[in-house]
Amino acid sequence: MPSLNFKGKALVQNFHLLVPFHELKPVKAKSLTAKPSLHDNLVVHGDNLKALKALLPYYHGRVKCIYTDPPYNTGNEAWVYNDNVNSPMIQEWLGKVVDREDLTRHDKWLCMMMPRLKLLREFLTDDGVIFISIDDNEVHWLRALTDEVFGEENFVEQFVWKKSYGGGAKERFVVRQHEYCLMYARRKELLSDLWLPPDEDAEARYYKYRDAKFKERGPYRMKPLEATKSMDSRKNLVFPIKGPGGAQINPKRQWWWSRDRVEAALKNDDLVFIKTEDGYSVSYKQYLMDEEGEKRGAKPFSIIDNIYTQEGTADLRELFDDQVVLQFPKPVDLIKRFIYLSTEADKGDVVLDCTGGSGTTAQAVLALNKEDGGNRRFLLIECEDYADKITAERVRRVIKGVLKARNEALQKGLGGSFTYVEVGNPMHMESLLKGNKLPSFSDLAGYVFYTATGEDFDARAINKKTGFIGTSTRYDVYLFYEPDLDYLKSTALTLDMARGLPKGSGNRRLVFAPTKYLDGIHLEEHRIDFCQLPFEIYKAIKPKKA
């Protein structure tokens, strides 16, 4: 496969590995929940690369759907390159606005996107997907980059979104009405079929016929059984069908169905024969309801129509007293479409948006849950100062209800909760050595658990009394730590502490502590692998590959 090269690529392609883990600090006063938790819906304020790295121990391999709306690099957005890569060239880029006159703007944009895409891939479940909004300024480079990060074989679709129904007076040559949204899967072979909700307008237009099955299956429409386009010839799809009066009806090309399926349809009265000049045509009945009594969904088209940019502005204005608080937010219905395609209502699927903006993705998740009784969750990250006053405030208002809203459900409130989180200090080895800016117990627990096991961390498993922080495939993991330098200087794993460890799952024990007063014989007797804090020097401890 041809490779993508750009200035700075060699410097940033592994930069996501060098980004330190940071503390995540819930802010109760800005949250809408009785008990702030990193397992709640989240609005995270901070640089999205740092926030993603900090969330990785909690959500590695657990996100079903990612939506992101990065800068389009139009030259008019005033975005700034801020990744502190250790390179003189990139250090020159820091803090400078990327505009249309910048001859390296495409290189800078790709350098910004690459580490974020690599981190985002780590969040996806094996059957998870990512949607990336973009326009013509960078779509060609983005396709090449996502092919490299996710694999060309995992490309699903490049949706064309017809975002406007009018024209722009400033356009010199062609009135451009569209943008794109790229869809990639973590592992495309595990991706389920994609369906949209039933289309009520289509029901009225197409499902016009009734038969004896109407009470169980609803009305039906007729679809040709004969293939209407050239296909690879398959002999098992070419055979006569017995029609009215014993007529033998042969296809000009081939049927869509096999002989066994046709015979079953004949037996169930699911075929319709229509008289033509030269014999009969054959159609099959497609009922509105499937055999389980559920309405049939619709296959998504690659062109998305009838959802316009203006709707996104209207969605936001009705929540903020008709004020325009942010320009060009995406419509709620557009994001709902992507979430519906890629998640299941009742599986607790997690939706991540690392460019949270006005909070559209959060509202889309809550609205969809309200409609289908789902329990999806959202993780939003926003780096700008308006994360509280716009992003989180929108979530507060849609949860509580907006009396002037057009939508009745939104008037009453969509319900739910969320925790507001600030990205805190980096967790460096120097901090532990010097006692400066020591992380909290839960932050350090998430860090050491993930870096040592490579598995996701659940803070709800923590038992500070015993030091237990979670179970991995190979280990029961323990941490003896307090964010206090005197504690770190005076605490060691002793024989009494080893004897007092819970029986746990029966796995070996991985114990983190400032030091130990046990020899190898006693460690082995109690099935303990010991890791001394500072923990960075023990990052090599990983699960053995089968």
Question: Could you outline the blueprint of secondary structure elements for this entry?
Answer:
Elements: H1 9-12, H2 15-18, E1 22-26, E2 42-45, H3 48-59, E3 63-68, H4 88-93, H5 105-123, E4 124-134, H6 139-150, E5 155-162, E6 178-185, H7 200-206, H8 214-217, E7 220-224, E8 241-242, E9 248-249, H9 259-267, E10 271-276, E11 279-287, E12 303-304, H10 309-317, H11 332-342, E13 350-353, H12 360-372, E14 377-382, H13 388-400, H14 408-412, E15 419-426, H15 429-434, H16 441-453, E16 468-471, E17 475-479, H17 485-490, H18 495-499, E18 508-513, H19 520-525, E19 528-532
Parallel strand pairs: 2-14, 2-15, 3-4, 3-13, 5-12, 13-14, 17-18, 18-19
Antiparallel strand pairs: 1-15, 4-6, 5-6, 7-11, 8-9, 10-11, 16-17
Helix pairs in contact: 3-5, 3-16, 5-6, 11-12, 12-13
Protein described:
The chain is of the alpha/beta class and 546 residues long. The protein has helices spanning 9-12, 15-18, 48-59, 88-93, 105-123, 139-150, 200-206, 214-217, 259-267, 309-317, 332-342, 360-372, 388-400, 408-412, 429-434, 441-453, 485-490, 495-499, 520-525, and strands spanning 22-26, 42-45, 63-68, 124-134, 155-162, 178-185, 220-224, 241-242, 248-249, 271-276, 279-287, 303-304, 350-353, 377-382, 419-426, 468-471, 475-479, 508-513, 528-532. The strands form four sheets. Strands 1-15-2-14-13-3-4-6-5-12 form a ten-stranded mixed beta sheet, sandwiched between helices. It has a four-stranded mixed beta sheet with strand order 16-17-18-19. Helix 5 (105-123) packs parallel to helix 6 and helix 12 runs parallel beside helix 13. The chain is globular.
